[in-house]
């Protein structure tokens, strides 16, 4: 009887055609672990339609409606053995066909489910794509998009794109980079500041000023050929005010505060504070960043499913090795559990890093997978950005030594690893697109810069470098986004300085670039630094020291921040270091034979490999 009814439906008379404006996701894959798929259909008065299809292994299990009659949510179920192919969705109303839509199930890439996410083996390179390399000037101005090229403005679009990042791949490979994290590449059709990417206007489309979806997919494929993965920057907390939803919102409750602007209070501790007032907790999660970034209500089940499927879609489509989740704690925490659980269920070896901007390790650790939280909250996100250690590193390098200042801040911050379920899976960074440049924060002190780079690339973390740090990029110490995210020299025709070739770089910049390249490539092949254990020793007289070790292999780091040379008594280290140890200094290749002491020049760093 079902087959007869379906046949009758397919043979029904055709009424006036209804134009489907959006159907998302536009395609899916056969063989995903989760059998359910929900399609958002957006068309004039589509809500009253019935939906039929005829394809083995696919069935319609439900239709869901919202306040707006121009939306219909179609629930499908895919059998485990469904084959890749194409089928027709037939929309009928009052017995007449009003629309047809061809839908595809694609074949997955071999091994897709078991893809390896970024890990302690990697060095992540964060890029602001608009400010890196302009590889295709033809997409600088795109008809239909509000903001055009204005390289003279620090807050304008400068023209960097996916083609530029692809052209830079050999440079990044030689630098020792193994993962690229570009700021969001999805469409941001905002009248101003669209370059940064954090106010999406289409969650399934690459901004044409960066390139196309296929350009992005090809970029990831080319990067993988060079041993480089790509981490996508995803935002589930908010969208841009020019998102197409805002022109025809599914429901008022799609956005927090019924689509009206109420600013967040940024009180992130309210998520787990046992004394927090409900009004403060609501203001944090439901509040908007700015009036041009509407805050999404992830408690809405249809929106939650949409956002989860969107993240899975990008991983599968682009062949990603990771996700960086922006403004992590600002989204509904129960949604974040479902979101992270689904991703890690589909891709068990994948990795996700969340941004929780707090210097408090209690706040950050709350969100990491495996944390036994006092309120019972459970997360499936494996990694978080290590803001506490970042701030401790800055304090250690810039403060005068005292019993409670300087190196002891870093020493004690690392001791807080006891509260993390998986501290070595945290991402440590020297800066990002929201912070001042580290060379400027260190008062352009090259000795301190070297210490920062050595620590970044030898600490028991996943290191992340912001583009241009390797050439001593500078900025004001106070936040100034446009100047922090300045153009990478050599990325535009006519640049007199070219960091890719070295042309025009100062001696100091060339030395910094060489330092980062040496450290990164050393780490790239050194399992001690990737997977080894850590032992550190409390700071004494401006000297901080630690070892990474694995079996009989050891790598030692000594920092002397003092303006005076120090003689280090190595008897202190005999619980790990062999007596009269012999080392190779990694940066110079020099052999150092010790006889109970080690000489540290003033303001110096030593990176020693036990021989």
Automatic annotation (TrEMBL):
UniProt keyword annotation of tRNA-binding present: no
Domain Glycosyl hydrolase family 13 catalytic stretches: 126-509
UniProt GO MF annotations: hydrolase activity, acting on glycosyl bonds; lyase activity
Matching CDD domains: AmyAc_bac_CMD_like_3 (cd11340)
Claim: Lyase is one of the keywords in the record: yes
Signal peptide (residue range): 1-17
Gene3D superfamilies with a match to the protein in the record: Glycosidases, Golgi alpha-mannosidase II, Immunoglobulins
Keywords recorded for this protein, A-Z: Glycosidase, Hydrolase, Lyase, Signal
Source organism, top-level taxon: Bacteria
One family name in Pfam for this protein: Alpha-amylase
InterPro entries on file: Cyc-maltodext_N, Cyclo-malto-dextrinase_C, GH, GH13_cat_dom, Glyco_hydro_b, Ig-like_fold, Ig_E-set
Any single biological process term in GO: carbohydrate metabolic process
Matching PANTHER family: ALPHA-AMYLASE FAMILY MEMBER (PTHR10357), MALTODEXTRIN GLUCOSIDASE (PTHR10357:SF210)
Protein name: Alpha-amlyase
Species the sequence originates in: Rheinheimera mesophila
């Amino acid at each position: 009887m079902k087959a007869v009814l379906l046949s009758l439906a397919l043979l029904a008379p055709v009424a006036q055609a209804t134009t489907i404006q959006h159907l998302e996701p536009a395609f899916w894959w056969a063989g995903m672990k989760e059998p359910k798929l929900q399609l958002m259909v957006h068309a004039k008065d589509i809500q009253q339609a019935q939906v039929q299809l005829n394809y083995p292994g696919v069935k319609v299990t439900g239709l869901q409606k919202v306040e707006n009659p121009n939306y219909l949510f179609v629930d499908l179920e895919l059998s485990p053995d469904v084959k890749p192919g194409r089928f027709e969705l037939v929309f009928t109303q009052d017995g007449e066909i009003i629309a047809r839509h061809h839908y595809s199930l694609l074949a997955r890439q071999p091994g897709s489910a078991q893809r390896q996410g970024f890990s302690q083996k990697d060095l992540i390179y964060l890029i602001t794509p608009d400010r890196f390399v302009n590889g295709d000037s033809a997409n600088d101005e795109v008809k239909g998009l509000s903001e055009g090229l204005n390289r003279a403005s620090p807050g304008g679009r400068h023209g960097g794109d996916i083609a530029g990042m692809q052209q830079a791949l050999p440079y990044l490979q030689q630098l020792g980079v193994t993962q690229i994290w570009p700021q969001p590449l999805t469409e941001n059709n905002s009248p101003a500041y669209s370059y940064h990417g954090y106010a999406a206007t289409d969650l399934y489309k690459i901004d044409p000023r960066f390139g196309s979806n296929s350009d992005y997919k090809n970029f990831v494929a080319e990067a993988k050929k060079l041993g480089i993965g790509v981490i996508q920057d995803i935002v589930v907390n908010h969208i841009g005010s020019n998102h197409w939803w805002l022109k025809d919102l599914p429901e008022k409750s799609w956005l927090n505060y019924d689509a009206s602007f109420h600013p967040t209070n940024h009180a992130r501790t309210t998520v787990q504070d046992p004394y927090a007032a409900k009004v403060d907790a609501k203001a944090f999660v439901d509040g908007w960043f700015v009036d041009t970034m509407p805050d999404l209500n992830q408690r809405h089940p249809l929106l939650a499913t949409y956002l989860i499927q969107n993240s899975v879609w990008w991983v599968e489509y682009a062949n990603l090795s990771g996700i960086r989740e922006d403004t992590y704690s600002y989204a509904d925490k129960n949604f974040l559990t479902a979101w992270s659980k689904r991703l890690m269920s589909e891709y068990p070896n994948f990795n996700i890093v969340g941004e929780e901007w707090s210097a408090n390790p209690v706040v950050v650790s709350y969100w990491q997978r495996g944390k036994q939280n006092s309120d019972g909250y459970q997360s499936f996100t494996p990694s978080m950005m290590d803001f506490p250690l970042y701030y401790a590193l800055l304090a250690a390098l810039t403060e005068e030594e005292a019993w409670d200042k300087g190196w002891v801040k870093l020493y004690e911050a690392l001791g807080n690893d006891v509260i993390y379920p998986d501290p070595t899976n945290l991402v440590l960074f020297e800066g990002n697109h929201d912070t001042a440049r580290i060379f400027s924060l260190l008062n352009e002190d090259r000795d301190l810069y070297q210490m920062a780079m050595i620590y970044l690339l030898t600490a028991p973390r996943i290191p992340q470098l912001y583009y241009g740090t390797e050439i001593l990029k500078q900025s004001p110490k106070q936040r100034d986004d446009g100047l922090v995210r300045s153009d990478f020299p050599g990325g535009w025709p006519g640049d007199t300085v070219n960091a890719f070739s070295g042309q025009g770089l100062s001696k100091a910049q060339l030395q910094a670039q060489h330092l980062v390249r040496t450290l990164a490539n050393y780490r790239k092949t050194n399992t001690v630094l990737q997977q080894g254990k850590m032992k550190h020793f409390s700071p004494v007289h401006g000297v901080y020291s630690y070892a990474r070790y694995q079996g009989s292999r050891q790598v030692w780091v000594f920092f002397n921040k003092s303006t005076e040379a120090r003689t280090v008594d190595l008897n202190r280290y005999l619980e790990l270091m062999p007596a009269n140890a012999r080392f190779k200094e990694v940066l110079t290749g020099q052999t150092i034979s010790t006889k109970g002491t080690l000489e540290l020049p003033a303001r110096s760093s030593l990176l020693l490999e036990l021989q």
